[in-house]
Amino acid sequence: MGKISNQTVLDKLNQQFGDKISLAAEPYGLLTFETTKEDIIPILSFLKQDEELKFNFLTDITGIHYPETALPIGVIYHVHSFVNNVRVRIKVFLEEINPVIPTATVLWEGANWMERETYDFFGITFEGHPGLYRILNVDDMTVFPMRKEYPLEDPNRVDKKDFFFGR
Amino acid sequence: MSDIKLAEAPPGIEGSGFFATSFDKVIGLARSHSLWPLPFATSCCGIEFMATMGSHYDLARFGSERPSFSPRQADMLLVMGTIAKKMGPVLRQVYLQMAEPRWVIAVGACASSGGIFDTYSVLQGIDEIIPVDVYVPGCPPRPEAILTGVLKLQDLVKNESLRRRNEPEYKELMNKYGIQ
Amino acid sequence: MDHPIIAARHELTETTTLNLGPTHPATHGVFQNVLEMDGERIVSGVSTLGYIHRAFEKIAEHRPFYQITPLTDRLNYCSSPINNMGWHMTVEKLLGIQTPKRVDYLRVIVMELARISDHLICNSILGVDTGAYSGFLYLMEQREHIYEIYEEVCGARLTTNIGRIGGFERDFNDTAFAKIKKFLKNFGPVLKEFEELFNRNRIFIDRTAGVAAVDAETAMNYSWTGPILRACGVDYDVRVNEPYSSYEDFDFDIPVGTNGDIYDRYLVRQEEMWQSIRIIEQALEKVEKEPKGIFHAEVPEFYLPPKEEVYNNMEALIYHFKIVMGEIDTPKTEVYHCVEGGNGELGFYLVNDGGRSPYRLHFRRPSFINYQMYAPMSAGMLLSDAIINLSSLNVIAGELDA
């Protein structure tokens, strides 16, 4: 489909960043790799500004939570090159307590709300973000509801309690 | 000859040149056929309400021609769609701004009970914060169901005592919700 | 340049804070914008959202794959079939299910009908907001006919829940095809009439042309997709760039605008409806050429067998049990699939850990991402223009807040 192959993209990245790119794979033809929070912005800006690659479109930023791993909080970027019709997925994993990652709003204005949403759900702080506060949930919420330990239902509910069967 | 059907006159005493009946019935009749709806549409059910208002189903046939977007001039609050906890205070505020007499229809599963969204962010039915007169089931209800809900409310309005709002039960209900 | 006296007067002017929403009747949904106004002109604005946040992504982690379809209905409820199909195709991509061509074409029919119903709501509401109510009444009537087709296919009107993983849960009957054909015959003239009311209407053009114009670079910087991006002149359409459901077999054009203003967005949506009609006509022809009676892929592990077979056939009973209890292994991997929704690229990012429900499911919701630019672009606009700008973005509250 794409005008350049995933291998070309990966080769160019390896040439530039070397061992900072790890665990490259292609699930369902979408180039996926991991990197660290120090390198994510250089990699994104390289992808965006490279003459050949031209990854000019930020499709999505989201988070993920894997409890019981060393670096449980993940941030996942989907970047798209309209010119070459190729997508890339980049993952960065962070520590559970107070995860911090630099913001992508310096590259794309559109990253603003995506990062706010990710902060709202996972509590990931995007350093340098112009206004990082909750977007979907109520402002006085203290937890980050998409983390796995937080239940789906409202824990304060009383109407579901049953005398014999509990909740 | 027009085929417009007029509302039936309430029972009363008729003689030459006069017709006597009680205030309750006359005012109830008038009110029931001029319910001005306040559409509080948040999600999917609001789209079905658009269909109800549209030319195909035409809610205006039942005297609700004028959707009143100002709560002050509305009689019937139609809550359509999911009410999140963030939205709760807004809905309550809208209800408080309405003048008596006021009626509420909870349209759809979400407004009635939270529907399929049994989550931390959704209010499990608007009757947690404001009293409701008629519940319309469905996710979303068909326009016919919304019309039925309005007709049921018309029945309520027609047969309601004029002083219902001064009755102790009603005051107790309002106190339960913390509304004076 | 203002006259110095007028400029001085501007300096003196105090700004007013105006709270627009969250239940303002002019906004057609739950949008709150706190605007700082200088008279009729907006100085700056802040959008607040989350008023119908329903925690879709959290619910999805607790539901089996086939029970997530009803959730996708309620994302963009103006075009729910596209969301349904998008979700099914995501799971099919994950499981490696190849759907028969006939299923693909039937899906295309339903999706294009949904696109028409989405665009016609947007454009007719744009008419209402610019002061032309009759267009709304014309097109709403047509939307009812689309809903009748949905009813024939799946039984529901709005939140359709059409289809299953692997295809449809039943075949389209003859009445459905007859209704689609009848709709195609009747819709064209009505749409033409609607265009005659609006396209060259002086008031409409004055209200929309040149208002809220966005250049392509800014639009891409804000990650816009869909008709509003195409109105800026970027020919990005998922149906062409990454064809799904056999869209590559169809011959259709992607309309693009030049100025990215409200009038261009209107025209792009209008033309897309014509193109959708074209696609449906082709799809009907193609369906007739395919063998009859095929409406799902042969994947017994994931496609619930009919009830009669469950009661009479051992194998069907086993599969039924396995599907309902979620005892079938699924690949431990991740997949991103996107479809061209009514408002843009609707993406599903699914991380699977081999269980019956997703480990993590993220919806890339075009309304959420498109709406982001609304407050910055409103600055300097008249309030009445900002209102029609919101209608032309066609932000759907359910998709915005998820």
TrEMBL record, chain A:
It is a peripheral membrane protein. Keywords: Cell membrane, Membrane, NAD, Quinone, Translocase, Transport. NDH-1 is composed of 14 different subunits. Subunits NuoB, C, D, E, F, and G constitute the peripheral sector of the complex. NCBIfam families: NuoC_fam. PANTHER family: NADH DEHYDROGENASE [UBIQUINONE] IRON-SULFUR PROTEIN 3, MITOCHONDRIAL, NADH DEHYDROGENASE UBIQUINONE IRON-SULFUR PROTEIN 3. Pfam families: Complex1_30kDa. It is found in: Cell membrane. It comes from Paradesertivirga mongoliensis. Gene3D superfamilies: NADH:ubiquinone oxidoreductase, 30kDa subunit (3.30.460.80). Coiled coil: none annotated. This is NADH-quinone oxidoreductase subunit C.
UniProtKB/TrEMBL annotation, chain B:
Keywords: 4Fe-4S, Cell membrane, Iron, Iron-sulfur, Membrane, Metal-binding, NAD, Oxidoreductase, Quinone, Translocase, Transport. One of its GO terms (molecular function) is NADH dehydrogenase (quinone) (non-electrogenic) activity. Its cofactor is [4Fe-4S] cluster. It is a peripheral membrane protein. The keyword Oxidoreductase applies. Residues 44-153 form the NADH:ubiquinone oxidoreductase-like 20kDa subunit domain. It catalyses: a quinone + NADH + 5 H(+)(in) = a quinol + NAD(+) + 4 H(+)(out). Its EC number is 7.1.1.-. NDH-1 shuttles electrons from NADH, via FMN and iron-sulfur (Fe-S) centers, to quinones in the respiratory chain. The immediate electron acceptor for the enzyme in this species is believed to be a menaquinone. Couples the redox reaction to proton translocation (for every two electrons transferred, four hydrogen ions are translocated across the cytoplasmic membrane), and thus conserves the redox energy in a proton gradient. NDH-1 is composed of 14 different subunits. Subunits NuoB, C, D, E, F, and G constitute the peripheral sector of the complex. This is NADH-quinone oxidoreductase subunit B. It comes from Paradesertivirga mongoliensis.
UniProtKB/TrEMBL annotation, chain C:
Its EC number is 7.1.1.-. It is found in: Cell membrane. Keywords: Cell membrane, Membrane, NAD, Quinone, Translocase, Transport. It catalyses: a quinone + NADH + 5 H(+)(in) = a quinol + NAD(+) + 4 H(+)(out). It comes from the Bacteria. Pfam families: Complex1_49kDa. InterPro entries: NADH_Q_OxRdtase_suD, NADH_UbQ_OxRdtase_49kDa_CS, NDH1_su_D/H, NiFe-Hase_large. It is a peripheral membrane protein. It is an enzyme of class 7 (translocase). Residues 129-401 form the NADH-quinone oxidoreductase subunit D domain. Coiled coil: none annotated. Belongs to the complex I 49 kDa subunit family. NDH-1 is composed of 14 different subunits. Subunits NuoB, C, D, E, F, and G constitute the peripheral sector of the complex. NDH-1 shuttles electrons from NADH, via FMN and iron-sulfur (Fe-S) centers, to quinones in the respiratory chain. The immediate electron acceptor for the enzyme in this species is believed to be a menaquinone. Couples the redox reaction to proton translocation (for every two electrons transferred, four hydrogen ions are translocated across the cytoplasmic membrane), and thus conserves the redox energy in a proton gradient. NCBIfam families: PRK06075.1. This is NADH-quinone oxidoreductase subunit D. It comes from Paradesertivirga mongoliensis.
